[in-house]
Every structure is written in C-alpha cells, then in structure tokens.
Amino acid sequence: MSSDKKIGKKIGPHTVCGPPPVLIREDETLDTFYRGRVLVLQRKRGYRFALDAPLLADFIRTRRTDELLELGTGSGIISLLVGLRPTGPITAVEIQPALADIARRNVIINRMAGRITVVRRDFRTYRRRKKFDIVFANPPYIRKRTGFLSATAEKSVAKHELKCDIVEVMRATARLLKKGGRAYFVYPARRRDDLETAARACGLHLHAVRHVHPRPGAEANLFLAECGFAAKEGRVLPPLVLYDDRGGTSAETRRIFEGRNRGPAR
Questions:
Q1: Which of 65, 183, 188, 194 could, after both became Cys, cross-link 227 (CB 3.0–4.6 A)?
Q2: Reported pTM
Q3: Domains in the chain, number
Q4: How confident is the model over 5-61, as pLDDT tens digits?
Q5: SS3 of the chain
Q6: In a domain, 163, yes or no
C-alpha cells in the first residue's frame, strides 16, 4: 500500500441484507464502496485497502471472455471491483490464511461465488495448465530491509517485500500470462525503474503508463502500468490528479471511487 489513507463507508454489522449470512468477527468492519454496490469486510487493525486498489481496478481493461488472475488479493477488493464488469472468471491468489478467509467471505457477501475463486497459495508456486488473459497485482512497495515494519504481521507482508519482491511478481506474471495477454500493476513512481527492469528480465514490456499525482503541480507518487510480451513503444497516458489545490477530490477520482470511470482511451 502506498498510503495509509483508507476509503470506503463503514456500516454496522447488522445492516447487511440480501447476501447469504456471513460471520463478521469482532475485530472486523463491514464497509461499503462504489456507492454501496460493493461490501468489504476488513480487519480493524490489520490490512485495509487504500486508494491504490480502486485506481488499479479502474485501469484494468477487460473483455467478456477474459480469464483473470490476481496475484496477492488481500481482502479481495480489486477482484471484487473488477468482477462487477462483464468479464470471465477471476482467480484470486493469497498467501496469508486470514486474508484468504476474508477474501472468500467478501466474495460470498457480494454474490460473486460463481465468478471469483479465492485460492490460498503462494503465487510463486501456483501453477495452472491453461494460462490467463489478464494478470494483475498491487505488489508490496517497500524494499526488503528498508523502512519500519507495520504493527501487525498481516500489514507488514502486504506492504513490505517479505514474502515476494517485484522480480518474483514479474516471474509469476510471465509464467501465467498468455502470449497475447495483458498485465496490470500499480507501483510507486520512485520504483518505476525496478518494475521495468524486472519486467524486461521476464520478457515483459511496458505498453502503457499512467502517472498518478496527489495534487496539481506535485510529483507523481504512483504509476499504473499495462504490460505485455510484445516489444513495442509504450504510451504515456494523460496523468491522473487525485486532489485539487484545496484538498478536495478531483472529478475523475470521484468517478473512480464511484465505479463510473474507465480512464483514458488506449
């Protein structure tokens, strides 16, 4: 996660109606996103998704027949957001047992059990004979042996390169992606060279890049990347500015948070 700013609207554990009954534990919250179209169980003090999750979900381009794979799904939020669109089945892989359990319950309460399958596995060893049309990931941002670990092991694994690094993310992507497939990532702007170097080492190339700026005139702190196997010149898409000079959410950011945006054409 690039930011500790959490998003989503919190609701009480007894206000859910419609989805099958799912246990909500004392250490969890039930939040809404996309104007209530998505319900998200999250740990109160563990891993909680931040704004980079909906940014990546918005950036991913899908077709009805695509089969998708998420590497490191966490609570399942990105797969849930992408799963609202017309697309094929989504496989969401998560190494941490507690997060995989939350992701499975999030799939159930959002009535997506027929579309999203959560697999509790280390994606570095995950294998499937048939490859995927799309692979996507929000990899850990903080290099090994740098920065301070989080208060919980769950958050530390999500934010720090403790279980995997960007090279291992790209290796898994290259192994599981179809030759004509597309891969999508969100990553810190300061580590763009790391992502590009790891991608090239695995035979992948940047096809499109979109820089994310916190406010007008500020340096980008994130970038969104679309990768593939074809060697071609990558396009730089119009930047995304999250907030205006007064700190208010930009119009495009609001559309992203409401699930009404699809980014610049490409």
A1: 183
A2: 0.88
A3: 1
A4: 455 555 554 444 445 567 788 889 999 999 999 999 998 887 888 999 999 999 999
A5: CCCCCECCEEECCCCCCCCCCCCCCCCEEEEEECCCCEEEEEECCCCCCECHHHHHHHHCCCCCCCCEEEECCCCCHHHHHHCCCCCCCEEEEECCHHHHHHHHHHHHHCCCCCCEEEEECCCCCCCCCCCEEEEEECCCCECCCCCCCCCCHHHHHHHECCCCCHHHHHHHHHHHEEEEEEEEEEEEHHHHHHHHHHHHHCCCEEEEEEEEECCCCCCCCEEEEEEECCCCCCEECCCEECECCCCCECHHHHHHHHCCCCCCCC
A6: yes
Amino acid 14: pLDDT: 41
Are β-strands 222-228 and 177-188 bridged in parallel, bridged antiparallel, or unpaired? Answer: antiparallel
Q: What is the CATH number of the domain that holds 35?
A: 3.40.50.150
CA distance 99 to 72: 10
**Structure tokens of 15?**
């206000």
263 domain-assigned: no
Domain that holds residue 47: 9-258
Express as a percent the part of the chain with pLDDT over 90.
73
pLDDT on residue 109: 94
Residue 217 lies in a domain: yes
Residue 3: inside a domain, yes or no?
Answer: no
Amino acid identity of 117?
T
Q: pLDDT of 184-239, one tens digit each?
A: 999 999 999 999 999 999 999 999 999 999 999 999 999 999 999 999 999 999 99
Q: How far apart are CA 200 and CA 207, in angstroms?
A: 12
